[in-house]
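Quick one:
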Amino acid sequence: MGIHTHKKYIYYLKSSGICIVVMGSCWFLYQLRQTSQVLRSSVPTNVLNLEQSRAQYIYIDNPRFKDVFMFRKSRNLQSSIAEESPSFSHIIMKWWKSLNRNVAYKLLYMSQHGNKPERLKAIYTLNSLKYLKDWHYQHIAQMLDAKTAVTLARMPNVDLRFFLKPPYHFVQHKLYDVIEKVHYFLLYLNTLCQNTHPCLIQFLNKKFKDSHRDGLIFDYDLTSIGLAVAPVVIWDQELLQNCLQALCHHSCLEQYSKDIVDAGGLSILMIIKQIFNDNINVYILLAKIISNISLHSEYLQEIFQAGWIGTLVEWSHSSDIRLSAPASRALANLDTDENDHVKYPRRIYLLHPLHKTKTNTKLDVVFLHGLLGGIFVTWRQRDTDTVGSVVVDPYMMENGTDTLSSVIGEQSQEFLRDLAYDLRKHEWDRLGQDFEIVLDDCPQNINDRACGPYFCKGDDDCIKNSDRYRKCRTQCWPKDWLPEDVPSVRIIGVNYDTNLSMWTPSCPIESRITTMSERSTEYTEKLITAGIGTRSTIWVCHSMGGLLVKKMLIDEWKNGDKNNICKNTRGIIFYSTPHRGSRVAVLTQTTQMLVWPSIEVQELREESPHLLKLHEEFLNMLKEYPMEIVSFCETKPTLLTAFKVPFQFVTSNSADPGVGEYYEIAQDHLSICKPSSRHSFLYQKLLSVLKHHVTPYEKTKVSPIMELLLLPSKFF
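Output:
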């Protein structure tokens, strides 16, 4: 009886187990089917259907079809292709890829139809997808709208396959036809501006004066048809580049940059880009023109349709800052999602962040150069033959070759060099904390308010990574160094034209702004447009740039600081600013008649009453708006001209404002603002000031899966 009952229980247990397995399998398949239906229903089918009138594209993602066109005579193409027996793993992978592709399309839909936070999350996640294939990118590129494309373009490390190539990029254009088209285009622009730009009129008369004959334009090779005299101006690539320079200058005036788009110039500029393939100087001119046009965000659709978004993305990642800076500025101006009320006008460059970031900006740092300077000239890393804090390898010979090079091969040499470097680094990590290293460019003289830092620990990052930093020299240290050390800052560079002599030709329209007062008004308006005054600000200026900063702050102070620029200014760093004038402006009356110094030079006269009054007002402003002041002064003369004539631009009496910290550095006027390395005192002091006004920031990384989970459930 007991055995019979035991068998009965076993039977019931087996039956229950089988039922549970069967029901669980059915439930799993049902949930899988429901999930698949939800994903399919969440993808908008209307955006996947192309119009019947347009060409249909079929993307083949199977190597078996590579020779499909060899079987044109066969009625059934599939009959010529070997059958593949689908395995279980193949079916699962196919289903997984389909699911991932649907997620990508869903993210695109969210980025186009969600609210602002949802769009940003979707685009961040879409940019992080790494499993998409070429045809996925091409399909998504066809579905992108202009606004979403710009937002995606400003993502870090975005894939260029997200953007369509320019229309008719495969068409080959003849040089003469392009020059003729550009010539007509310039004439039309001159008509649109009603002949009010003298520079454009002068260029057309100079370069194309022999081109018009009874309303016709003759070929430049007139000798080929029997004429003995050829035109003075040869229609070659140099002439086309000159036309592009004239067009870039014309676009610098805001009211004229609109005419370029209205006249259909975006497609012409793309043709010029194709003519000058990989010409960096032409690319820089084109980037400047597009960045000037980008101030008018209403032309976003035209810029997108002409194919410029993908080109700007490519240029923004260029190693040449002259190209990456204007390209990044253009994308930032077109990104209306992030910059609703912030624009970067001409000569105002966004150096960081060049791309969208999840970091909250806590401090603005504005760099202004001096006389005859510029962002890409003044703020370079200093060229030097000797670099401090270099660990000498005793196993290396004087000529830099390994002593075992005659015995071992090249690969072995590289292995031994890496091994020796790792051993030295490991030893320095163990012992470096016990050492202090004197910073490069250490001050020769200081005042009683100076507080360093003058040393750094041996295990500091700038010392441990000195080898890597030394190999990677920078064209602009504010752009490359500061974001790594202080991520939560926005870095802006200001460019402005200056001349030593009034003999220098200039545009009649732009030359109206010459005095420091007029320049202050112009750049205050531009910086307000860029959002300066909305958060804490540090000004970093070299030479005359310091005088311009003082003038802007004083003008704002006198006007009641309506834009909160004085209130939010936390500090100013002066690199050899002549508060009491410079000897560069000391000229005799006879010399002045010959040189005819510019207004900028005349305003820099030593002990100028204008500068003394400006400095007095600056000190009075500091009583109401106290701010941190740090001043560096040159002690070495600058070697001028090819004859190496020594000349000290700014004396210690003029560079000392009488307030804040003061340091005398053994450098000349040109190198005082160019640190030799990241452990230079000129850089470390600025870094300490910035860190003092910024709360330490720690970046929180969120995985793409977490980003996907954080997206609103209503889209799924």
